[in-house]
Amino acid sequence: MPVAWAPSEADVAGRRDVRDWLVFSVDPSGCRDIDDAMSARRVGGHLEVAVHIADVSHFVAAGSAADAEARARGTTVYLADRRFNMLPEVLSEDVCSLHAGVDRLAVSVVWVLDADMQVVRTWFGRTVVRSAGALSYGQAQDLLDGRPAAALGGRAQAIAGALGDLAAVMRRRRARRMAQGALELAGSEVAFKFDADTRQVVGAAPKPALETHRMVEEAMVMANEAVARRIADAFPRAALLRRHRSPTPERFARLGAALGARNIPVDCSSSAALAKSLLAVARDEHPALALLARAMATMAMQEAEYLAAADCNGAAELRHYGLALDHYTHFTSPIRRYADVV
Fold it and tell me: pTM here?
C-alpha cells in the first residue's frame, strides 16, 4: 500500500522548484517504478527541453545498509510473472517513483535549444517536480497522432503540444546520431500470440516500435551523454563512464560470409559504414534477412562496460561505438540500476 509521503521543507531546500512545469512520464502500461519524466516548454523565444530523474540518492545514502544491498543486487530483475527489486518496494514503487499528482524529488538536466534544435545552454541540478500525467506509450502515441486521451482531462492538449516538441527534437537528434554512425541493431520486443484452448504459442513477431518509444529512448540517451560529459569534466579521473569498444574485424567474419553468399557486400570498417550496409540490406532484401543481418551484427559486438575515466588512455578509448558518442554513462534509471545511483 502506498505511503502518505511528501517532501518536507528541509527536503526541498536548495532545490529548483519546477512543480509549475508541465512534467509527464511515458512508460509501458502498468509501470509502477517510474524513473524518468520529461518536459518541454517555450521560454523567451527558445525551446527548453528537460529530463527529470528520480533522486534515489537522496534516500539511499552512500555506505548505508540500503546502499550495500542495492550494490550487491546491481539491478532489478524482471521475469514474466514477477520481479526482484534492487531497492525496497516502498522506495521503488512509491517514494522515489515519479507518479502523477504528487511532489517528488528529482535530478534534472535542462537544455535550451536554438531554432535549429541545437543545444545552446545546459543546466544540471536537483529539483522538486510534480508530474501532470503518467502516460503509457500507447496514450502518448495517441496524443502525438491527434487522437483524444480522455483520461488526461484538460491537460491533454498541453501535453500533446509538449510531446510534439519533444518528438521533433529527438527525431532530429536521432537522425544526427545515425548520420555519425550510430547503429540500430537487433533487440526488438517480440509479441507472442497464445491460444487459450490449447495453451500453446501459435505465433510470434517483432512488435512495431512506436515513435514514442524512440522519442523516450533518444531523450534518455541525450541525458546520459550530457551527464557523462559533465562528470568527465568535473572528475577527469574518477568519473564512472560506460564505453563500447569497436569490434575486431574477425568478429564480422560470419556476417560477411552470410551476406556474401547472397552477393551482398558488407563494410565493417567503421560504425557508420556498418550502419549503411545494414540499412541497404533492410531496403533491398527480404525483411527476414535484414533481421538476421542485424542479429549477427549484434552478436559480433563487444560487450559494453563500466570504467573509471582514468582507466582509459585517451579520449578515443571512452567512445561508445554503438551509439556513436564520445562520452556515455548510465544516469536515467536509478530505481532499477545501481550504476545510475552512483
Answer: 0.89
